[in-house]
Amino acid sequence: MSSSSQNPTKGLRENRWIRAVIPALLLHCSVGTVYCWSIFSQEISEYIGFNKSAVEWAFSFAIFFLGMSAAFLGNVVEKDIHKSSLIAAVCFALGMAGTGFFIFYGGGHKGSLLALIGIYISYGFIMGIGLGTGYLSPVKTLMLWFPDKKGLATGLAVAGFGAAKAIASPLMQKMLSGFGETGIYKMFLILAVVYFVMMFVGHLLLKKPEGWHEPAKGEKKPSIMEVIKTKPITNYVGIWLMFYINITCGLALISQEKSIVKCIGLAASAGIISTVSAIFNAGGRLGFSAWADKLKDRNTIYKIIFILSIVSTLLVMLTGAIKNGSGNVLFIILVLALIFIVNAGYGGGFSNVPTLLSDHYGMESISAIHGITLSAWAFAGLTGNQIATWIVGHTGSNIDIEGHSVNPIGYQNVLYFTIILYIIAMLFCCFFVKNSKKK
């Protein structure tokens, strides 16, 4: 077994912001822009001549391959963060540039299947690999540099992933309008260069503390399954399912967020509300993880997240606030509270999972275990927004609210789906995931 120094020397402590926090923010603020998809998805579909639902699969594939690449490349991250962070920079930038190229091609060949498949491969598969490795690479390094405040450290960086949308959205909107009709593909080509530079600088700066010793060559290291089996297998299954359900419910609501805002008569403020919800997402990543550092059992944070989500969802369900909200101040407040609470809990679930895993299974193989656990994100990316879209498409009917065609009953019905899952997740918290002393 390898040994670790829990407290790097004083001199090294002075470098932890440069060697861990700054590179983590550079990596996460770049890959986090995947959540800007809704800003330009309509423009892409119109430019290449496909309906929006066909183009939307690019985002689902990106999230799927994010999780799967993290799962399969977790051991690469564990062994060499410089190799993994370089893979992240190259794949993310290449995927961005490829997306721009195939949008350009699709603009000249309307309805071309090659353009659509090219976007799937570029934005979904290639960029997805960059997303997974870029998200995972700095996490263990942060926990090693901040052994006594692991939650705060990972929360700060992962907050960059959540805040990326709020930071990048106005810039993307400006580029889209500034470049005119050809702005959509030019934006991707420019951002490919910008994000490569950011991620490459992060790659150069990222470094584990000198006090941490990786296993020597030839030294036997326990397999991931051996580490997981040090606790009852139901313990890990419980953590995986809690993580999966939190993401699925978050995506189900977030994917319908703009339409729900229109239902309550706030269409003119949709952009502002989207920015505020992104801030809550980032704040939840930082706030919940920092809070967890002060608790005896980090799993308590998940119980708090699920209780808050259940209560806010139940209030909107019982009052019918989405379908009755237009013009009613109380119902508008309830709906906005639901959106902001779910966004905060969604972000908090992400920032707490690596530290929760380290509390249960130690730091030895945390990158690999965290990577496998991110497969929950992959499957949630294929189910959360797709199930919500199906519910909205098959229940209720569209009506006109202030000139916008929306389906309030359909959005209201999505909440029945999410509250059932939140309750199931709460049961996993209570019965499957055992308390663990922080390591």
Could you explain how this protein is built, in words?
By secondary structure, the protein is mainly α. The protein folds into two domains: 12-208, Growth Hormone, Chain: A (Up-down Bundle); 223-439, Growth Hormone, Chain: A (Up-down Bundle), CATH 1.20.1250. The protein is 77% helix and 1% strand. The chain is built from 20 helices and two strands. Strands 1-2 form a two-stranded antiparallel ribbon. α12 (233-254) crosses α19.
Q: What is the averaged pLDDT score?
A: 87
- What is the percent of helical residues? over 70%
**CATH domain class of the largest domain:** Mainly Alpha
CATH architecture of the largest domain: Up-down Bundle
Which characteristics define this entry?
1% strand, 20 helices, Growth Hormone, Chain: A, two-stranded antiparallel sheet, single chain, 439 residues, 2 domains, mainly alpha
